[in-house]
């Protein structure tokens, strides 16, 4: 049973003009087996939420709490959070020159599990995950994210999701920059993860497109650093028809 | 983090200096020792080098009887031997070198013998020629001259492997025949007290391929100048460097790609890491594109990874262009600490900070180690990088189980 609880989360980022508050009290609970979509316009703080949960040093938590199965996430280092069961699929995965994908995956798996994976099954697992995401097995010898196309980067993130098997996955605009074929492949990967026992997914997106392939249980509209409205998947259809204007105007008042 | 990347366009906008033949960085040469003053340290080419620690090699230290043993293998078809007298004299300047320092002029004038590595034309040498130079007495100031002659269309790899303790000045001259394919690796794996001043001068023949790799780990002071000129059009030079400076070490690499012929190429990549108090590295990359050198391509790059406080990495790319008729020219220099985004990405996958740092450093060097292209020394380099990392970055890191070689 996994449960990610975000309570009244306030986050600032340092700017030239001093700290600027980006998250202004986010409250959200993701129970096991649930998929929550967070939708919002650019600059609403969606990515900040994702990176704050993962522990990026750029963001300062000024209030609130995040717990995973009751454990205080915010007191953990970035790697401890991952080992506790959090995974962030990044919008802009980082290039790590000279480090091969296979070495990276094995190192990460070893860190998460606390022991090196069994070689025989691991190679099979890796090849299977790459294949399901339509990535050539030779992918393993390439440097992490270096020279990857936008689609390859995202598929590589989802391959990691399959292999590292976290409790809760935060997907930050995983759909951005994908053509329809890649979007389907990525969505199938996320759905395979969702089918596993007790997994939670926080799906951050700007567009409703991906929600045709990954059906959320809840949709939250994110505006100006907090959740403006929550509902079922019908809320996404409404957003598709009406856009964010209504919420943006409300936020400006 | 500082990054500079210049394109030829911006370099041209600064304006080529018309009528200039010799770069100010490379004073006119002479074989006559008397033509060279003892450097004071204020000269451009000496300004980074702590002369005091050279034990007089740059000035007038006696070149004593060698205390550095020199052994080698002799693959089939290759002549390797110490020669003296007229033959040794005839090899001085084999690479087109006209000394621009007092010490190099002294080496050519005073050292009685030369180690000759002679690969005849059309010979493909199947295994690397490895010359082991093992220093036994750091109190002995000495000098050496090595001449490598690769005939037309020959193919060979030479590794100069420096270990132990020496105080040595060495001139290595390399003549790469037309169409030849040559790799020269110089490995400075010295003990902590060694002093090594060296000048590698190569002349690259028409359509020849020359790769030079300078790898410096050990020594109190290591300075190497790796220079290239071209004998004819179509020659290509790849200048690689890898260095790791620990506390108190001074490691200085200078390159000079002198494009003396049209349609030639030079590509330089030097990467270094620094750790510990007063670890100092210097990289000066000089490229001169002469008027005659139309249609050339050049790119030079230096990257330094600063692992701890108290280190200094100087990195100076110089590009002088006397003709605008070129294919491409550029340079990049970056000196940085660990990239936070890379560390965050790795840590977000559960990898500890130290392990992430180790991955990043290995990654930083891995590509370069592969580019050296000599499988027999790849493992050794990876092991050495690991040992260097163990000194600081990975202190206290336990299990290495997760880190295997790349497959």
Quick rundown:
The complex is a heterodimer of chains A (253) and B (407). Chain A has 253 residues and is of the alpha/beta class.
Architecture overview:
The complex is a heterodimer of chains A (253) and B (407). Chain A is of the alpha/beta class and 253 residues long. Chain A has helices spanning 46-54, 78-84, 101-113, 119-132, 150-164, 180-195, 234-242, 245-252, and strands at 3-15, 18-31, 35-39, 59-68, 71-72, 86-89, 96-100, 143-144, 168-172, 200-205, 218-223, 226-231. Chain A has a single domain (3-252), classed as P-loop containing nucleotide triphosphate hydrolases (Rossmann fold), CATH 3.40.50.300. Helix content of chain A is 36%, strand content 31%. The radius of gyration of chain A is 18 Å and the shape is globular. Chain A starts with a strand and ends with a helix. By secondary structure, chain B is an alpha/beta fold. Chain B folds into two domains: 9-337, no CATH class; 339-399, no CATH class. Chain B is built from six helices and 17 strands. Chain B has a 17-stranded mixed sheet that branches. In chain B, helix 4 (340-347) packs across helix 5 (353-372). The chains are: A alpha/beta (253), B alpha/beta (407). At the A-B interface, helix 2, strand 7, helix 3 and strand 8 of A face helix 4 and helix 5 of B.
């Amino acid at each position: 049973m996994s449960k990610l609880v975000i309570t009244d989360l306030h986050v600032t980022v340092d700017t030239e003009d001093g700290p600027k508050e980006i998250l202004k009290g986010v409250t959200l609970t993701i129970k096991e087996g649930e998929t929550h979509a967070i939708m919002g316009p650019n600059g609403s703080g969606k990515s900040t939420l994702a990176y704050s949960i993962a522990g990026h040093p750029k963001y300062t938590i000024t209030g609130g709490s995040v717990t995973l199965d009751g454990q205080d996430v915010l007191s953990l280092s970035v790697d401890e959070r991952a080992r506790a069961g959090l995974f962030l699929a990044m919008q802009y995965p980082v290039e790590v020159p000279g480090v091969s994908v296979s070495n990276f995956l094995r190192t990460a798996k070893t860190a998460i599990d606390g022991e090196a994976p069994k070689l025989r099954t691991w190679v099979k697992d890796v090849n299977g995950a790459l294949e399901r995401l339509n990535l050539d097995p030779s992918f393993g010898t390439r440097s992490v994210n270096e020279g990857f196309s936008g689609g390859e980067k995202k598929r590589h993130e989802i391959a990691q999701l399959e292999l590292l098997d976290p409790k809760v996955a935060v997907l930050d605009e995983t759909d951005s920059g994908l053509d329809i074929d890649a979007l389907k492949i990525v969505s199938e990967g996320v759905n395979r993860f969702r089918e596993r026992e007790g997994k939670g997914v926080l799906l951050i997106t700007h567009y409703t497109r991906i929600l045709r392939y990954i059906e959320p249980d809840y949709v939250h509209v994110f505006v100006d650093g907090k959740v403006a409205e929550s509902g079922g998947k019908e809320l996404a259809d409404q957003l598709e028809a009406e856009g964010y204007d209504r919420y943006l105007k409300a936020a400006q008042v | 983090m500082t990054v500079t990347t210049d394109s030829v366009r911006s370099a041209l906008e600064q304006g080529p200096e018309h009528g200039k033949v010799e770069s100010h960085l490379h004073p006119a040469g002479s074989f006559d020792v008397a033509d060279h003053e003892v450097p004071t340290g204020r000269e451009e080419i000496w300004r980074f080098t702590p002369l005091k620690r050279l034990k007089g090699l740059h000035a007038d230290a006696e070149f004593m009887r060698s205390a550095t043993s020199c052994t080698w293998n002799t693959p089939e078809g290759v002549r390797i031997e110490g020669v003296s007298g007229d033959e040794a004299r005839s090899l001085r300047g084999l690479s087109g070198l006209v000394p621009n320092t007092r010490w190099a002029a002294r080496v050519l004038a005073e050292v009685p013998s030369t180690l000759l590595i002679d690969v005849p034309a059309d010979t493909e040498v199947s295994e690397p020629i490895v010359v082991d130079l093992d220093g036994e007495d750091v109190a002995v100031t000495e000098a050496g001259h090595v001449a490598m002659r690769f005939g037309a269309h020959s193919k060979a790899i030479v590794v100069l492997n420096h270990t132990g303790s020496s105080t040595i000045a060495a001139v290595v001259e390399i003549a790469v025949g037309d169409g030849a394919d040559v790799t020269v690796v110089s490995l400075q794996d010295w003990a902590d007290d060694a002093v090594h001043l060296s000048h590698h001068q190569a002349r690259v023949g028409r359509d020849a391929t020359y790769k030079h790799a300078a790898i410096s780990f050990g020594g109190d002071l290591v300075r190497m100048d790796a220079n290239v000129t071209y004998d004819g059009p179509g020659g290509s030079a790849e200048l690689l460097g890898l260095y790791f400076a620990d506390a108190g070490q001074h490691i200085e690499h200078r390159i000079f790609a002198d494009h003396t012929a049209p349609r030639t190429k030079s590509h330089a990549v030097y990467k270094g890491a620094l750790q510990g108090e007063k670890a100092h590295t210097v990289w000066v990359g000089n490229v001169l594109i002469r008027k005659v050198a139309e249609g050339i391509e050049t790119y030079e790059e230096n990257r330094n990874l600063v692992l701890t406080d108290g280190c200094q990495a100087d990195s100076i790319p110089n590009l002088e262009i006397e003709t605008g008729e070129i294919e491409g020219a550029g340079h990049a220099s970056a000196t940085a600490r660990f990239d936070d985004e890379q560390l965050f990405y790795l840590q977000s996958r559960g990898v500890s900070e130290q392990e992430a740092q180790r991955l990043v450093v290995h990654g930083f060097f891995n590509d370069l180690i592969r580019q050296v292209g000599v499988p027999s020394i790849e493992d050794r380099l990876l092991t050495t990088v690991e040992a260097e990392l163990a000194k600081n970055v990975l202190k206290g890191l336990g299990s290495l189980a997760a880190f295997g070689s790349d497959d």
